[in-house]
Specification:
Elements: E1 5-11, H1 15-30, E2 33-35, E3 44-49, H2 54-64, H3 67-73, E4 78-83, H4 84-89, H5 93-96, E5 102-104, H6 112-120, E6 126-128, E7 151-155, E8 157-158, H7 169-173, E9 177-178, H8 181-193, E10 198-202, H9 218-226, E11 233-237, H10 246-254, E12 261-263, H11 271-277, H12 283-296, E13 301-308, H13 315-328, E14 332-337, H14 355-378, E15 384-392, H15 402-405, E16 409-413, E17 419-423, E18 432-440, E19 445-449
Parallel strand pairs: 1-2, 1-3, 3-4, 4-5, 5-6, 7-10, 10-11, 12-13, 13-14, 17-19
Antiparallel strand pairs: 8-9, 15-16, 15-18, 16-17, 18-19
Helix pairs in contact: 13-14
The chain binds S-adenosyl-L-homocysteine (SAH), iron/sulfur cluster and FE3-S4 cluster.
Iron/sulfur cluster (SF4) binds at residues 160, 162-164, 167, 169-170, 204-205, 240.
Length: 452
């Protein structure tokens, strides 16, 4: 059916959820609902949820809690809980959020439209957490894209079968399935035509892309995407260290559009903890991959994820993680205090770490990394780097030379994913320009366009 009205989508969680929300927006658009940034104006509100840590889940429930009040004002409003918490909770979601109309699991998108029709015809409390058996591959509607967004995500595979003991993803995203290379290439070509310059390929473990289906390997897929006209940069996440092949390292080195940056989550520097996490590699194996990357891809930027306070993590285990940071010198890290998830096995492990102690370790780790992030930034000063211009800069620098003071301040990213602010009269969003880096700050760089 076709309706008319506005849709408000609130997204929590990872890049995959951002991409999923765009798919939901496309479906809603095809049903006649235009996207709005004003919740009060909406005829349908969707909360796309994340359950990776307790905090993310609470954020979802606190947003959903507002539905009761808004529904009182507007009884025709359709309320939807989508994504990972929806998948995890199913019907139980109605106990905490009685004013919900639809609970839409992570693999039920193809039936979203049908459920809207049912609500419109009077049906109440619909739950769909069934697996469709196929990947929802419908192309997004680029007409609802923000034309200023030159960098986009695309999910290339669903699910995860690694079962790290702390993680909910295998339970809420189901088994691993790869999209066909043809559908991925078709979708990216569509993006390129809509002005997109940079693409980030998403999967929980992109290194095992296509293996189950016996189709192209991940490096082969990268080679195919490298040929798409209009796309200038290719990024991907996440790469699992246990499956990082030499073939992929060579693809990063040899394919000109693949950025010289790798996000390689290590989680812990202690072999004891890595084993309990079921990560499938040792610290030595991880180090071996890092050495290969540094050797083959000169100047590669490296980032990682770390969990502190995993059950039974001793002070020595934590020291091993701190040492690993000193040894590798990552460009940036994402660090988290371990959060108990009842569906993941680690929730039943003994020797849970005290919450206060987790925070002490987290802060020490972040403090140490601050030093390396700034050090890596300082190493860029004096270099000329290629920047993809992403928008106007929200930062104003004091003490600029007279000639720059009245110019527009713009911002973009380097291949290594560092933010660069610069003054320019001519730079437009989507341009790729060369900038000479003049200053380094803890979280950004500042420079002059070449020739300015
Ligand atoms: N598939 C990716 C990561 C997905 S989740 C990978 O394997 O690396 C993103 C990050 O959240 C993880 O890398 C991990 O560091 C963190 N994370 C996952 N579960 C967590 C939990 N229970 N508590 C704290 N952090 C967690
Ligand atoms: Fe979670 Fe591990 Fe799968 Fe990553 S690889 S999504 S951390 S189970
Ligand atoms: Fe969260 Fe689901 Fe992503 S749990 S991190 S939104 S896969």
């Amino acid at each position: 059916m076709k309706y008319s009205g506005y849709a408000y989508i609130y997204t929590i969680g990872c890049q995959m959820n951002v991409y999923d929300s765009e798919k939901l927006a496309s479906i809603l658009n095809s049903y006649g609902f235009e996207k709005t940034g004003d919740m009060d104006k909406a005829d349908i509100v969707v909360c796309n949820t994340c359950s990776i840590r307790h905090k993310a889940e609470e954020k979802a429930f606190s947003f959903l809690g507002r539905f009761a009040k808004i529904k009182k004002k507007n009884p025709h409003l359709i309320t939807v809980m989508a994504g990972c918490v929806a998948q995890q909770e199913g019907k139980k979601a109605f106990d905490r959020v009685p004013h919900l109309d639809i609970v839409l699991g992570t693999r039920a998108f193809s039936r979203f439209g049908q459920h809207i029709d049912s609500v419109k015809s009077g049906k109440k409390r619909i739950t769909d957490i069934e697996d469709s058996g196929v990947i929802y591959e419908a192309l997004p509607d680029t007409s609802c894209f923000d034309e200023n967004k030159v960098s986009r995500f695309i999910t290339i595979m669903q699910g995860c079968e690694n079962f790290c003991t702390y993680c909910v993803v295998p339970y809420v995203r189901g088994r691993e399935r790869s999209r066909s290379p043809e559908s991925i290439i078709e979708e990216i070509t569509l993006y390129a035509k809509a002005g997109v310059k940079e693409i980030t390929l998403l999967g929980q473990n992109v290194n095992s892309y296509g293996q189950k289906e016996g189709q192209s390997s991940f490096p082969e897929l990268l080679a195919g995407i490298n040929e798409i006209n209009g796309i200038h940069r290719i990024r991907f996440a996440t790469s699992h260290p246990k499956d990082l092949s030499m073939e992929l390292i060579h693809a990063i080195r040899d394919l000109d559009k693949v950025c010289n940056h790798l996000h390689l989550p290590v989680q812990s520097g202690s072999n004891q903890i890595l084993k309990k996490m079921n990560r499938g590699y040792t610290r030595e194996k991880y180090m071996d991959r890092i050495m290969a990357l540094k050797e083959q891809c000169r100047g590669i930027a490296l980032s990682t994820d770390i969990i502190v306070g995993f059950p039974s993590e001793t002070k020595e285990d934590f020291t091993d993680t701190m040492d690993l940071l000193r040894q590798i010198e990552f460009d940036s890290i994402f660090a988290f205090a371990y959060s108990d998830r009842s569906s993941a096995p680690a929730a039943r492990f003994s020797d849970q770490i005290d919450e206060k102690e987790k925070l002490v370790r987290l802060n020490r780790l972040l403090e140490l990394q601050e030093y390396y992030t700034e050090k890596k930034n300082k190493e860029q000063v004096g270099k000329t780097l290629e920047i993809l211009v992403e928008g106007k800069s929200c930062k104003k620098r004091d003490g600029l030379e007279q000639s720059f003071q009245n110019m527009e301040q713009m911002a973009g990213r380097t291949q290594s994913n560092k933010i660069v602010h610069f003054p320019s009269e001519h730079a437009r969003i989507g341009d790729i320009i060369k900038i000479r880096i003049e200053n380094a700050y803890p979280h950004s760089l500042w420079g002059h366009p070449l020739g300015a």
